[in-house]
């Protein structure tokens, strides 16, 4: 067929022939039938016949089957041996309460008032133990310092300690404190009491023994509250990091450590479970002796 003179287009009156498609082929049905015969599934009889003609395949299948069970049983035995001979995990260590439970710090003078004087006290704190235990989930309570002079003193200064063996009257009495400790233990709460042995009130009975007081360093010092870090007792100046109402204890002296140890043992015998040392950074200052041996010595005295 020539396309000349038609610009490459086929004339409308020209008949064009096409190759027959596969579905139009007379051999299509025969091919489909042949494909079905070629790809049919093997039956059990076919496999048996194949085994009889090719015994190698039978031995190969049996070998793989036996190998599977050998490997499976080997892995099972290995797992059993690992379980039996592997060292057991060490028992979980029994941690002290301050490492295994939540602590809750409380300033009793500002927490709960049971008398209506707008000053918190130990009885008011007892009334809130259910909340502290169930809602907060505390395992121990850390009481701020509650010693005599802490809140009530004639110098109108918070934080003084006039006597380590009595409770500040604003917080309650010794009977109130014992009741508080019993109530805490009944609720599964430990009691930790804060003690500050860095300094005492300038009117504390310990100031009668001047060897227990820290000498005022030469050259002068400024207290952390401003002003001269000097407290005059019996006409002699002594060092006070927190101002003239306080005086620092000389914790290098054995007599001071003995007094401090007696205080700690007294309160431990009253039922408290621990002691929080406050202001430890100022226990020993500007000395070749570090503070760590001091605190270690105190601990060995208290728990001996």
UniProtKB/TrEMBL annotation:
GO-annotated cellular components: apical plasma membrane; basolateral plasma membrane
One GO term (biological process): carbohydrate metabolic process
Organism from which the protein derives: Schistosoma mattheei
Name of the protein in its database record: Uncharacterized protein
Boundaries of every Glycosyl hydrolase family 13 catalytic domain copy: 108-209
Domain of life: Eukaryota
Lineage of producing organism: Eukaryota, Metazoa, Spiralia, Lophotrochozoa, Platyhelminthes
An annotated Gene Ontology molecular function: aromatic amino acid transmembrane transporter activity
Record-annotated Solute carrier family 3 member 2 N-terminal domain positions: 35-101
